[in-house]
C-alpha cells in the first residue's frame, strides 16, 4: 500500500540523525504539525466567537445531551428532573419558614411565649429539611443510574459508527483526530453534561424561588446580588474556555504521545525496541511531546489563575456593597430587623445558589465544548458510512472486474492506482506482482470491497460494489500480512464469530497448518491468545500467520484474497500453504487473488498482473510473460538466480 509521508497514523519516529537520544523536529513532529492541524479553523472560530454566542448555542447542546439521557432511560430522567425541581422549591419554603421563626422570636412579649409561638415554624423548617434530604437522595440515585446508562449507549453509538465507517476514513487525519478527541474525553462528557444540565435546571428553579423571596423583601437586593456573583461566573467560564482551547491544540501531539507510549509498553514492539536500542530515542521523543504539553498547560493554569483572581476581587467588592446597602436599609427604617435577618439568610443562600448555578452553567459550557467533539465526530463518521445498498445481495461470483480505477489516499499527494483495469472470473487464480509500493495491496482492497475508487468502478457480476454495499464482503475471504492478533481464543481467532462449524474449523486448520499449532497448546482451541491475561499464551509470527490463513480458509466464500500470506512462514510451511490454497480453490470453486513476492508460487496462475507505480504494465500467463522482455521476466529471473536457477523455466 502506498503511504503518504505526512500520514499521521504511522507513529513510529524517523531514524535518528543526531546524537543518541536526541529528539529532532522530524522525530516528534514540528510545532506546526502538532499545533496547527487541519481542523485549526475551529480553534480560530472559538477565538472569534463571543461568550454570548456560545451561551446561545448551549440550549441545542443541552437538548442533545438530554436526548441521549431520554434514550438511555426516560423514567430515571423524569424522576431526577422531578426530584430536583421539588428540592429546589423546598429551599424557598424553608426560607419562608425561617422568616416565620424570626417573626415569632422578635415579636413583643415574654420569651417563653415567643419560643412557644415559634415551635410550629421550627417544626416546619425541620420537616422541610428532612423532606429535602429525602428528595435529594432520590435525585442522586436517579442521576447515578442515568449516568451509567447514558455512558453505555454513547459508547455503543461511537463503536457502532467506527465499525461501520468506510476503511478510507481511517486514512484521513481529520477523521482520526476527531475520533481520538471523541474517545479521549468527548463521549465521557455526555453523561456529565446530562448531570450538569439537570443540576443547572434545578439551580435555576431554586434561584427563581429564592429570588422571589428577596424581591418581596426589597427590590434593590436582586441587582446587588447579580453584581456580586456574575464576575465569578465570568471568570470560571473564561477559564474553562482557555483549557478547552489548549486541549484542542494539543490533540494531535497527545495522540502521537499516546501511540508512542503504547509502543513502549507493548509486547509486540518490545523485541525490536531492544534490538535497535531505541529506548533513549523513544523516551526523548515522548519527553519532547510531554514537555510541550506540560508547558502549554502550565501557561493555561497561570492565565486561569489571573482571570479567576480578577473575578474574585470584583465579586468581593460587590458583596461588600450589598451588605452595606442592607445596613443602610436597616438604619433608615426601610426594612425591619426581622426582614433584615431574613434578607441576610436569603442573600447568603441566594448568593451561594447563584454561584452554584454559575458554576453549573460553567460545567455545562465546559462539558458542551467536549460534547461538541463527540457530536462533531459522529457527524464525520456518519458521512463516512457506506451508502445504503440499491442492489440485491450478490449471487455466486461469475466475474469480478475493476475498470479504469484511480485511487488516492486522503493524505496522499499522488494516486496509489492510476487507471487500473483487472478482472477475476469464477474459479480462476489471479496473481498480482510488483515491487513494494507498486499498488498491489491497494488494488487488493478494491477487489475486497474495502476501498472504492475515486474514478472508475468495481463490479461483481456487473453490479457495482457501491450499489451492493457491505454485503459483498460476506462473499469474500481475506488473508492479509498485517493480520490482527485478537485477544480471544484460538477458535475465535479463526472463526471470527461466536458460532463455530467444527467440520469447517478442522478443514481450515488442516489446510493452513494451524492444527499443528493448536495441538501444542495446553487448552487447545480454548487457549486465549493474549499474554496480558493470566491464562493467555504467546505465539510466534509464523504461528500467527497460520491462524490468519485458517481465517481465510474457514469462511465459505466465492473469492479468496491472499496478500503476502506466507511472509512469516518457514520454507516447509510455505510450500504446504501454496499447495493447499490450490486444493481449497479446487474443492470450493472459489476464485483466488494471490499477492506474493515468491515468484515461483505464481507460475500456475491463470493470469498475472504486473504493477508499477500504480499502473498495470504487463499481464498474461507465466509463459507469456517470460516469453517477452519486461518487468516480470526481470523479477522472476533475479529471484531464480538467487536460488541457483532452481525455479527457472
Automatic annotation (TrEMBL):
Q: Where is the ABC transporter domain?
A: 400-638
List UniProt keywords, sorted A-Z: ATP-binding, Membrane, Nucleotide-binding, Transmembrane, Transmembrane helix
Q: Report domain ABC transmembrane type-1 positions.
A: 78-366
The record's PROSITE patterns line, in alphabetical order, gives: ABC_TM1F, ABC_TRANSPORTER_2
* GO MF annotations in UniProt: ATP binding
- Ranges for the region named Disordered are 1-32
Membrane topology, from the record = Multi-pass membrane protein
Q: Name one Pfam family in it.
A: ABC_tran
Superkingdom, taxonomy of origin: Bacteria
Entry keyword annotation includes Transmembrane: yes
- This protein is called ABC transporter ATP-binding protein
Source organism of the structure: Nocardiopsis changdeensis
